Amino acid sequence: MLLWLAELLGSHIRAFNVFNYVTLRAVMAALTSLTISLMMGPWVIRKLTELKVGQAVRNDGPQTHLVKAGTPTMGGSLILLSITLTTLLWADLSNKYVWLLLAVMLGTGALGFYDDWRKVVYKDPKGVSARFKMVWQSTLAIAAGVFLIATAKLPASTEFIVPFFKTIAYPLGAVGFCVLTYLVIVGTSNAVNLTDGLDGLAALPVVLVAAGLSIFAYVHGHAVFSKYLGLPFIPGAHEVVVFCAAICGACLGFLWFNAYPAQVFMGDVGALALGAALGTVAVIVRQEIVLFIMGGLFVMEALSVMIQVGSFKLTGKRVFRMAPLHHHYELKGWKETQVVVRFWIITMMLVLAGLSTIKLR
């Protein structure tokens, strides 16, 4: 919206042409979403408290979490609102990727909202059924894959890229691309949701991964840089940087209120949506393996649940004291803040490892 206005004014006042630079708009997007989150945060928390939208806590979890019962949840709605408003303000609204990202994020956010609502109203920590959730997520993910392959202008837009190698890329075909898109979006959405179990644990890793993917989006969307670094040029991918910047600002603003001891929880409305958004960004810029590296924390959390469930069903024994993984370390004696900060450090290292693939090719 503001880009259109700047282009209109730029024909008369050249100074407004500076807004054509995606880097400037990305910085402004991060600051705008951060400001919205910080300014609206107290009001959202107050309204959630008035509506008695309190978190239900599992009785079989760490006993230290029992004091969190009743803390307002569904705070992820603040994040989604900040991201949406900021993206509409600063992004190029003629770019197809912008609308795809908003559609996937808000569609998955609606699922998370319904899930949280059931938890609050019926006091059931399990929320909606796994089947209902999977059908909803699958529909959105497959629709995103079909849209991307139907609108792809270059073969590179649908190839599977292997990091660390300049010449290794595999054509996927329509079916293969949709399957990969489904796995990445649905997998990342659920993995981030599983990670969101401690105060501030998910917010900062989402910021770090989004920032890392934004660099890939900028390179892939720049013809000169992509050629120099041996990465495929994807027209329009540069505009994804604005969306990623909006995620960073919104989540940092939310972290102000979500840091220990949390005044509000993200809830499924935020975690499911942010995970799906990150997965969609990775698919757009063809960096699914890099997302796997950068989001290694999310992968470990999801794998811990899969291993725990599989082991218990097959042998009747548990591998971890409790899953997801962060609860395991809590029960081993780590304080909540120790788990959170150490997992943040791990994510920082993994994001740097993922960024190294840009040059180490």
How is this structure best described in words?
With 361 residues, the protein is mainly alpha-helical. The protein is globular. α2 (22-50) packs antiparallel against α3 (76-90) and α7 packs parallel to α10 (267-284). It has helices at 2-10, 22-50, 76-90, 96-122, 130-150, 173-195, 203-220, 223-228, 240-258, 267-284, 288-294, 296-315, 325-331, 336-355; strands at residues 159-161, 169-171. The chain has one domain (23-358). 66% of the residues lie in helices and 2% in strands.
- The spatial strand order of the largest sheet comes to 1-2
Total domain count = 1
Summing up helix and strand content along with how strands pair, one would put the structural category as mainly alpha
Query: How helix-rich are the residues, as a percent range?
Result: 55-70%
Radius of gyration: 20 Å
Strand content: under 5%
The residue-averaged pLDDT reads 89
**CA distance, first residue to last residue:** 38 Å
E-strand count: 2
Molecular shape: globular
Total of helices: 14
Spans where pLDDT lies below 50 across 5 or more residues: none
Element pattern in H and E = HHHHHEEHHHHHHHHH
Q: Major β-sheet, in short?
A: 2 strands, antiparallel
List its traits.
361 residues; mainly alpha; two-stranded antiparallel ribbon; 14 helices; 66% helix
